[in-house]
Design a protein that fits this description.
The protein has a single domain, classed as Class I glutamine amidotransferase (GATase) domain (Rossmann fold), CATH 3.40.50.880. It is built from 5 helices and 11 strands; from the N terminus they run βαβββββααβαββββα. A hairpin with a 2-residue loop joins strand 10 and strand 11. The relative contact order is 0.17.
């Protein structure tokens, strides 16, 4: 199970592109509404979630959580006790955590990026507390995958999917959507 947390003000492409790619890769993905069962993104797109934050179950079937950026979405995510609990749960167990745009700041504030390579939206680097700031738009350091912003949403989604299906199948997925790979 993969939970993608959505809060009002989230960046739509940073949430929905990875959801799409993870589902194409055969993963069970659930949209989790932190600010309700319908959540409106930073560009006015309203999404019906699968679950609310109060309905999630952190258990053995949890494989990853994803935190999209956007403003004030990131701030609303960080204020959520459910998000904080899920991040802690994953960090303690080595479960994958994906964060894009401003959302890596949530991990930075918790000290989870110290000594790890990470990236965030330009201007948020100082909030990545003791991280090694990457020059790549998507970077993985252990169980944490961070990305720079909306322009990296496809690459981010493919990197998330690769954790479950491997590099070869992720490349096939990229080819299937006509995404140029290096």
């Amino acid at each position: 199970m993969i939970y993608v947390f959505l809060a009002n003000g989230f960046e739509e492409s940073e949430a929905l592109v990875p959801v799409d790619l993870l589902r194409r890769a055969g993963k069970e993905v659930r949209l989790v509404g932190v600010t309700g069962s319908t959540v409106t993104g930073s560009h006015g797109i309203t999404v019906q979630t699968d679950l609310t934050a109060g309905e999630i179950i952190l258990g053995n079937d949890l494989e990853m959580i994803v935190l999209p950026g956007g403003m004030p979405g990131t701030l609303n995510l960080e204020k959520s006790e459910a998000v904080q609990t899920a991040v802690d749960y994953c960090a303690e167990r080595g479960i994958y955590i994906g964060a894009i745009c401003a959302a890596p700041s949530i991990l930075g504030h918790k000290g989870l990026l110290a000594g790890k390579e990470a990236i965030a939206y330009p201007g948020f680097e100082e909030q990545l507390k003791d991280a090694v700031i990457s020059t790549h738009s998507v970077v993985q350091s252990g169980n944490i995958i961070t990305a720079q912003g909306a322009g990296a949403a496809i690459e981010f989604g493919l990197q998330l999917a690769e954790q479950f299906v491997g590099a070869e199948k992720a490349k096939a997925l990229a080819d299937a959507i006509c995404y140029p790979t290096h």
